[in-house]
User: Fold this.
Amino acid sequence: MPANEFVVAAFGASLQVLFDRLANPTLLPFVSGSGIDSVIKPWKEELLMIQAVVNDAEEKQLTNKAVNMWLDDLQQLAYDVEDILDKYATQLELEERKLMTADQPKDIVAGYFSSWMSNCHMKSEIEEVNRRLEDLCKRRHRLGLKEIAGGTSAAAPQRRRATTLQHEPAVIGRDADKAKILEMMSKDEPSDANFRVIPIVGMGGIGKTTLAREVFNDQAVKYFDLKVWVSVSDHDHFDDEKIYRAILAEINFKSSDYDNWENLKAPFMAGAPGSRIIVTTRHLKVVSIMTGSNASHNVKLLSEEECWSVFAKHAFKIKDIAKFPNLEYIRQKVASKCNGLPLAARTLGGLLFSEPRESKWKDILDSKIWEDTLNSKLCIQEKELVRLWMAEGLIQKSLDNIELEDVGGEFFQDLLSRSLFQKSGTTFRFTYVMHDLVNDMAKWASRDTIFRLEDESKINNQSAALKKIRHLSTRCLSNTKIEALHEAVNLRTILDVNCVAPGMDFPFFLPKFKKLRVLSLMGNYYVVNTPQVISLPDTIGDLKHLRYLCVSNTAIISLPESTNSLINLEVLQLRWCALIKKLPPMGNLINLRHLNIEEVNLIEMPLGMENWKNLRTLSNFVVGKDISSRLDVLKNFKRLRGELRISKLENATSFSPEAILCDKEKLDKLWLDWDWSNECPSEEVQKNVLDILRPHKNLKSLGITGYVGTQFPDWLGDLSSSLTFLETIKINHCKKLQCLL
Assistant:
């Protein structure tokens, strides 16, 4: 995807999030007569007119500083309007909850909201948004920004079409890849067609087209009577008839649609037996459509030595390499910047070739554009990234009511198939990284809204600049770092905190950032001498926008009572907080979707959790003796999915005979634990517990620990019919069990 299209897509998506917020169903029942409808409607109309010219603005920003400033102001306004609307929706939900509890009619809620709207602060906010919108519209006309039909300017730079002409006298580091493709070309495998597709897959700039060209021109494939080179372009449109007429002239085409591919391949079915089609693509979806599987040749990154050879060939050319005294420094910088990507090595080499001064080379290699991505890569887990997207409002409900988590999962897989993410080389499963160049592109598209804080002394303490920052990451949070950002009052995200300095003044800094949606204070509790979070202040409850709270791996002892005020909270991560014994009442967390209390030594579950109707994942349900922790509470969580552990089942002595889990069809794994070291209830009670905990037939993995009965209930005796998709079953410390199944 070209850079300008990447930015247009990202910015268009952020505006769409705002439009979805403007049509928030939470607001709609109450806006009539309150005055807010007369405010929201003009906002949407004006923003739609502005969105129509965003494509044109994105193309002109590189050469027109005024356009760049216009886009920057538009982005900041979009953030601010969304924050205001979120405040409206949250206030509505809070007041509705209060009044409905008191059995008050909805018109009273609307009346309350109307009076709330009339206060001076709210009027001031609305007037300020109106002023900024009007200013953007006026500047749009002065800048000559126009709506572009089809979304792309005719003047936009087109991707250079690949040809069969060899640009390089020698291709470095691809001998093994070339040999493998030639081997695949020569193999005859059973097929219902006269041709076979050979896919070459890899991220942009890794050398797929160069590799295909090498194979195309190799003497080993001269036995093909006819060879045609077809170039792929994002700007081409699929036209079967046109391709049929012009393919002998090597017309360019692209298809990622199954029906189009079926139509296109029809003529090749009558071609000469043994024909081959080499396809280069970033997208595994294309491979699947064309071959029916994901089998392909994946092009890997170059080694540091190979990358240096590519760079040196373009950077030095006729220059005497021996005249560069800092050669080892240059080599290290090139290796870290290009990170195995041949296109990056070639481009950087070409850039430096035209610069004769070695001092200038150092300036370019030390350029700020490369900062923050060189020393380490953040490993990303798909589920956590999707939850962060949700917390930031980037995923909205679909018309067909697909779960937000599933929509986000599709987005992630699409980005993975396009090589924007890569599988991590670490030992951790299901973790991914982002290539440095993709990271640089994302940071550039984000403008001034993101900031990585490592050295507070480098902060340019300007109020206007700091107020633009929306997303902050840092490796170790401290009072001095936060004080340096005292003007960054619009922060939405504080993320990637691996430790917290001693004496961190949470009551001081948290109230400053009332717009926070994501707060991650994850520590390393089991790393010796690493300072940790000890407690959160009561002011945490003032963060009404907060959706994602993580204090995992810390020495936190308890959560404050005010946590119950976080009505928008969707994700609460307490993993490995081993010192927490009890959670405060949490009945107001009606939007909570994910609770991770893995390795938390809870005595019982929190009061009010029966109100969590939106709960999707629960790592552990601790059965307690209080009514709030009885098994019956699990009936309220109709949408549970993934993995669930139910522990301390020895406390389950009083419960309804109704089945609890059999309607939860998205549960994959279930672990049922009795503490066999404690005194357990009678065998009959335990057997009844197992009976009501019969899972849905879709379950894939089942574990039972500490059960002291002599036999299992009937559903465990006939797994072939009760759990038809079961793959694994583990039974531990069931000492009195006479037979397994």
